[in-house]
Design a protein that fits this description.
alpha/beta, Rossmann fold, six-stranded mixed sheet, six-stranded parallel sheet, 12 strands, globular, binds NADPH dihydro-nicotinamide-adenine-dinucleotide phosphate
Length: about 270
């Protein structure tokens, strides 16, 4: 039976992951297929068991199932244990192992964008949702000096506490925006751009503003940022690099990320 791989979530139809992975599967002539599969909230375990019966041995996991995936797996990487969230599952002889390649995907994206190492850099992160956990974990592992800003302060507090990060500063959104003069790098993980909102930013003076969303949502944030003198990057490179790390876990092959990035940009461009 051709091995089944896929991304599970709800909603899932918009996912670029099949485009990325099926391109790599074809390039490397693998006997595998990759699908976008909807599993409704609360149905994760049953859904995965059904996919197992169809030959599933590797899954990417997105909203709302990242926590359920971490709970479901028998074996977990250290990042999954710390974050309580997984985006990659891999079955070996029926035993499911969980990894979190969002962390490495974000690190890879920054490594390709930043001129200086992250250690000691003052990084302001906006948002304290699921993706912010992977971002803050990655920044903390790299030794960055983190300021975490969120609309709901208690969520930011819980994030730093759950990840056992000492020394991070917590601010509300408005105060965080007002104090951006003190930041070397800014990372937006809020989903505000999906609602068409952009932040009112001070002069960027050539500093980097990253929004980890992509497509129209990212542009709502990045266009005004560029107009205020920030260098900008969206999250498509993070998406492709987390996919590459999943692909390597499943197939032991490091795929071509530049090529996948071009295919994703073309697909987003075609949707405009
Ligand atoms: P969550 O729903 O878990 O968190 C959303 C966050 O955005 C919360 O901090 C929330 O604040 C904040 N927020 C929502 N609306 C507003 C608003 N209008 N103003 C200010 N803050 C707001 O989402 P995720 O963390 O999973 O995803 C966030 C973004 O990251 C999405 O755009 C998603 O596409 C992107 N993403 C990109 C990935 C990649 O590979 N590039 C991977 C995963 C996600 P509050 O706590 O106050 O509600």
């Amino acid at each position: 039976m051709t091995a089944l791989y896929g991304v599970v979530g709800d909603p899932i139809a918009h996912s670029l992951s099949p485009l990325i992975h099926n391109g790599w599967i074809e390039t490397h002539g693998l006997d595998a297929r990759y699908e976008a599969i909807r599993i409704p909230d609360g149905e994760f375990s049953n859904g995965v068991r059904e996919l197992e019966a169809r030959g599933a041995v590797g899954l990417n996991v997105t909203l709302p199932h990242k926590h359920a995936a971490a709970e479901f797996a028998t074996k977990k990487s250290e990042a999954v244990t710390r974050l309580g969230a997984a985006n990659t599952l891999h079955a070996t002889e029926g035993v499911w192992q969980a990894d979190n390649t969002d962390v490495g995907g974000f690190q890879d994206m920054l490594a390709g964008t930043l001129d200086a190492p992250l250690k000691g850099q003052r990084v302001t992160v906006f948002g304290a949702g699921g993706s912010a956990r992977a971002v803050v974990y990655a920044l903390s592992e790299a030794g960055a000096d983190i300021t975490l800003c969120n609309r709901t302060l208690s969520r930011a507090e819980a994030l730093l506490e759950d990840l056992q990060i000492d020394g991070g500063q917590i601010l509300d959104l408005e105060t965080g925006l007002a104090r951006l003069a003190e930041a070397d790098l800014v990372v937006n993980t809020t989903s505000a751009g999906h609602g068409g909102e952009g932040f009112d930013l001070p002069d960027g003076r050539g500093r980097l503003f990253v929004d980890i969303s992509y497509g129209a949502a990212a542009e709502h944030m990045l266009e005004p940022a560029r107009a205020s003198g920030w260098k900008t990057a969206d999250g498509l490179s993070m998406l492709v690099h987390q996919a590459a790390r999943s692909f390597e876990i499943w197939f032991g092959i490091a795929p071509d990320t530049d090529d996948a990035l071009k295919r994703c940009r073309a697909a987003l461009e075609a949707k405009r």
